[in-house]
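From: lab user (bench 3)
To: helpdesk
Subject: output format question, protein + pyridoxal-5'-phosphate

Hello, I'm new to running complex predictions and I'm not sure whether the block I got back is the full result or only part of it. Here's what I submitted:
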Amino acid sequence: MTNPALYARAIQTAPGGVHSPVRAFTSVGGTPVFVQSAAGARLTDVEGRRYIDFCQSFGPLILGHRDETVRAAVIAAVDDGWSYGACEPYSLELAEWILARVPWVERIRFVSSGTEAVMSALRVARAATGRGRILKFEGCYHGHADNLLVQAGSGLAGPVAASSAGLPADMIASTLVAPLDDESAIDAIFDAHGADIAAVIVEPVPANYGLLPPRRAWLAHLAARARAAGTLLILDEVITGFRSGVRGAADVYGITPDLVCYGKVIGGGFPVGAYAGRADLMRMVAPEGPVYQAGTLSANPVGMRAGLATLQRVEAIDGWAALETRTATFVDALGTRLRAIVPDLIIVRHASIFWLCRTSAPVRQPQRIPSAHAEWYRRFFHAALARGVYLPPSAYEVCFLSIAHDDAVLAEAAEALTAAAGDVG
Ligand SMILES: Cc1ncc(COP(=O)(O)O)c(C=O)c1O
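Helpdesk reply: Thanks, we reran it on our side. This is the complete output you should expect:
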């Protein structure tokens, strides 16, 4: 079995040969790697080549691949049967674990993906406020629900353009889009539409168009304008949740959401998402309230036990602090080495998330990412791959470090990435 042979078969079976677009290597070119297995910080492809993996399934695997404690929890879960469609103690345990640690999570509902979590939180916000519009930010991704697949239209902040085919015009018309990092755009939108906006949704640390850590003052301004307008603040912590600590980026930036959306780490690598927040809002969800939302596989016991095992393990080993230090040390040293070869390169970091960008100054808005970045990254990605490092296959996706990326792995990765930068020039 070779990667190209499998890809030739795959494109005869699935759109673009994949079941989620970035996996197709469209933006970096070439043939996707087909993973045979994974353990710790490494992937092994079907040709037997091994790679240090900084993609980590796009974020869920904070302990790395095939972590022993999570594996044991999953095997025990499977031995108990893997779906009941009935009440069970496992989702209760995970819910109680989170409620005991995150003050703004007074109630939680588990779903099967981040997309579902966001869709449902927005429905609750509309029901609670009796308003129809939502506000999102240019460059933030919140899953593929119709009304969120929009980008800023031309002209003033507010109007939107579809970023996918197949979206009903009336559906996207209720979404407003503002640029990141711009208080005056927030003011203009709230001045014009504040009374109609049910919710503002934001990634507290935008991580889907590169990594664009916000100014604290900007986030605080957003929260204040939303509160003053009676608009609910929804933090999309699908990537950042349980990354920097149990309370996520909300804690790092000192803002309290009304509702919060989770995915990725919360399921330990299984299809789990959640929306959560104020009890008065969450009580609006069926069967307690009038907002309908349901799922055949919601709170699937295998995912619940994998998620709880992951979070308990990270907490038990003080993993968040370890990852913070380890990632900072790695990124600082790597940045220095890479800049000796590529002077206008910075590595942006939040907790154990990092992103390499061809720029000489930090950026906070997608349009400020230099256009040369994508072309450089395409070549760097393949040079890294050839030297045994698997980076996310897009210039705008972020890298993740896991507990399995120990000092030896990181030293090897730094060597390979420095050599790759030299290959690219
Ligand atoms: C911030 C954010 N929200 C929502 C989603 C959607 O989650 P899912 O892919 O689980 O539907 C993603 C996915 O990457 C995300 O990064």
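A quick orientation on your result: Residues 319-339 form the longest helix (21 residues). Let us know if anything else is unclear.
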